[in-house]
Amino acid sequence: MQAVANPTPAAIAAHMFADDRASRGLGMSIASVGVGTATLTMTVRDDMLNGHEICHGGFITTLADSAFAVACNAGNIVTVAAGLTVDFLAPAHRGDLLTAQATEVSRSGRTGVYDMVVTNQHGARVALVRGRSHSLPGRAVIPAKETGR
Length: 149
Description:
Elements: H1 9-18, H2 21-25, E1 29-34, E2 37-43, H3 57-73, E3 77-88, E4 97-108, E5 111-119, E6 125-140
Antiparallel strand pairs: 1-2, 2-4, 3-6, 4-5, 5-6
């Protein structure tokens, strides 16, 4: 692979997403990304429904977590989740297009706080998620002199 100097948030997101089999397998896609922010979408499928015929909360949380991951790694420093809290506000149904928008609230030293809002195609809020991140200094998502995989 060719060396990458100062990769853009979009390039970092694409690099991460290429190896993210979980997010891709759930049909997620990246709608937008910037420094400290990301928006991902996912359509609720039949295999995501629970016994009440609504989207299982774990899938909604996973969408928010994936947006969180893209947002907190957009600065090209490997960053992982330290914790999440989730509040479900309304059910999501088969065929709903869910959008998770992640926004950096605070970043200091190795830790960050991010808020994710998950909405449906009508703009109604489905869930609010707050994530805490932990950065791993010295580890780049896309190393400056990447030699291949």
